[in-house]
Amino acid sequence: MIFPDLLPELIPLFPQLRGSLSANEPLAPYTWFRVGGPAQLFYLPADEDDLVYFLRNLPREIPVTVIGLGSNLIIRDGGVAGVVIRLSAKGFGAVCLESNQRLRIGAATPDIKAARAAAEAGVSGLAFFRGIPGGIGGALRMNAGAHGGETKDCLIETRGIDRAGDVHIFSAAQMGYGYRSCAAPADIIFTEALFQGVAGNSKDILAEMDRITAAREASQPIRDKTGGSTFKNPPGHKAWQLIDAAGCRGLREGDAQVSEMHCNFLINRGAASAADIERLGETVRRRVMETSGVELHWEIKRIGQP
Q: How many CB atoms lie within 10 A of CB 102?
């Protein structure tokens, strides 16, 4: 699908823009599934000031969608109308050690890089990020967690920008965290966060991260085109066990497949479309409901037009 090109009418509105703005940018390369259509407009801000300038001058009727590292995301085949914003590592990927075992981390920082930076600084409490695919921005939005830790456990505050271009600071309490969710306004684009760790031994923390890495490689299809855990664990249940009991391990829809290794992971075997993956997920949800009476809810975010 090709969207109408909005660049000719928008470029004059941003004479001081320093970031990159393009039309009909393919989005599949920005996702781990490697599927999906284009962005009508694709914006890579140079830094936070550039992002503020862009949002303040962007006409209000144009919708804005933010994507991170694309690990927990299905972009539908019709693409995404309006502007898709992706924060760059150059402008939003800094990790700064502050006093008292605190780390200020940019939203575009990969979770693994955040965990390693903390370990090398002798800061314990962030090693669980090693087991989470994606970036800090996504972790803030969904209270990402793994291996006994969650984002809320070590967060002090986060910084973000709303659709009008205004900057906000949210304390951990104001984020309103729940299981894989937060209550921060939906239009907030997180740019950085401040985390609290405790003093630790770098060697011990790195060893813990190695154990997390080994556990992931042994149980998850991390070398496949996947999006991480597909469904949230329902209260009192584990999603993978419900999926397995429903006979869905290895189930296929076109080139999309329920992983044989871990059946709460969907994988693209090479030529799957976004529609294939989403249909497969909906088939899994239906079969689990039929066999167990438990409803599965998507953990993977799905955006765009069919």
A: 15
